[in-house]
Structures are given as C-alpha cells and as structure tokens.
Amino acid sequence: MAPRPAAGVRAAGVTAAGMRAAGVRAGVKPAARIRGLTRDFGDRRVLDGLDLDIEAGEFVALLGVSGTGKSTLLRAVGGLDREATGEVDVPGPVAVAFQEPRLLPWRRVLANVALGLRVPQPEAVALTALAEVGLTDRARAWPLTLSGGEAQRAALARALVREPDLLLLDEPFSALDALTRIAMHRLVLRLWQRHRPAVLLVTHDVDEALLLADRVLILAGGHITFSGAVDVPRPRDRDHPALIETRHELLRQLGVTKEGQLWTERHGLPVPVPVAAAACWRSWRRSPR
User: Where are the domains of the chain?
Assistant: First the structure.
C-alpha cells in the first residue's frame, strides 16, 4: 500500500535519493550512511539491501512490528553485528543505550559512567555527566539500589559522557512505568538539544516517536518503507491535530486502522488479521518489555 502523507509529516520516497532528501542537508556529511545493508538469520532475510542516511544532529525514530529487524539494524549501525553485509559509514564516535541499563553491579554508579574513559580526571567528567541527568547524589550508590528510571539515567550519562556524534537508543524506555517514561522523554530531549548528537531511537511506541523525533521511519520486509519528517514544533502536545492525523497514518502503515482493526498484506492486497491473532498482538503491545 503506498504511503499517504499526513498533516505534520512530509513523507519522502524510500530510495537512496529519497532518504537524502528527507534526512541529509546538501554539503553536510551524515552521521551515518548505510547502503545495501543485508542480514540473514539462517534462511530468513531480515534486512534486504537497506539504504538509510541519518543527518548530523538529527533525531530519528524507527518503528516496525516485532521481528522486523529494528534492533538488528541498530546493532549493525553501531558495529555490533559483524555478520551484516553492505556499506555502513559512521565517521564519528558512537554510543549505545539498550533496553536494559547494563550497569556493572560490582562497580558504583560513578565508576560505571567513568569506565573506559580516556580523558584526564575521568571521574570528574563522569560526575558532570551524572549531574546532567540528575544523579549527583547517587554517584556512590550500587547499581542494584537504583530504581528503573535512575538506572536508565545512569546508562544515558554513560553514553553521553563519551560525546558521541551518533547515539543509538534501543527501546530504552520500554520497561519503565508511564510517569517515568514521560520524565525520561523530557530528559532525553533536553540532553539532545544540549549536545546535539544524531539519534536513532528504536521503539514500538508511535506516540513516543512523534513526541521525540525529527523524522519517523517504518521498517518492514527488510526495507525502510516509510520516511516522514515531523514538522510540529517542540515541545509537542500529543493532542495536536497534526500529530493525531500523523498517528493514524503511521498506525495504518503498521497495519492498524483508526478503529483498531489489524491489517496485513497477502499477495499485495490488504486483508484483515483474524480476531484471535489481533487480540494476541494487542496483548503483547500492552505487556511490559
């Protein structure tokens, strides 16, 4: 089904030229340039000659149903998947924050953030990063004593202290409660506006993508099938009319109608997903991950 641009989103073609038009200003070297990225798992091809540009300083959100290869793409861009083939050009430093904070439990928070830093007075630099995420008073704490939100803030500090040109976020808010997620969204935007790395955020949450990103992508069938720039100024109200229309369009692209009916494609034609399967999918979407 061909994408239809919604108000507030400028949809671009999904060819390499279209990606450049949507994501990269002329004369500015992108933070990431991916061409022909392919990844197989056994006889299943998850990424199939994928092309993508991410502009320096651009905040990009990547949507897609479970199993489409979003995290696989993120890992390949971050140099964490050596089995992927194709061209991945990321000229600057990269940092990654995962769904789990992945703090070392035998090191205090400050030592986790400072780990591996090759700068004079690494602990002083790490303490500054902890101050940015509001964790100065938890610097000497053990990771297992942190709340979920505190642990993710520590993970963000650990990523940003390395001053990356490209920050990769792999569903870092999915295990947090609703109020903590809202606080983390505001924190991430504030840190992004201060440091201006390019960001690739993998998420299942359409609202999260619309509230945070400059551009929203949809991954399906091994390709970027939709790329749209979100033109609503920040801070954004999720009830903004343009975002409401855009949300409906993204859900349609993901196979969900305005009424909540799930659709898929069969032989190139839209067909409804059986009720039982749709119920399982919605139950999975509501479950903590």
Answer: 255-289
Pick the closest to residue 171 from 86, 250, 99 (CA basis): 99
Long-range contacts of 266-272 (CB under 8 A, 24+ apart): 270/1
Residue 170's φ and ψ, nearest 5 degrees, are -100, 85
CA-to-CA dists, residue 192 to 55, 267, 285, angstroms: 14, 42, 27
* DSSP 8-state code for residue 262: B
Q: Is 139 helix (H, G, I), strand (E, B) or coil?
A: coil
Q: Is the pTM of this model over 0.70?
A: yes
Query: Using an 8 Å Cβ cutoff, are 232 and 240 in contact?
Result: yes
pLDDT of residue 3: 42
The rounded distance, in Å, linking the Cα atoms of 184 and 201 is 13
Strand partners, 216: 61, 228
Regions of the chain short of the pLDDT cut 50: 1-6, 12-24, 263-271, 275-276, 278, 280-281, 289
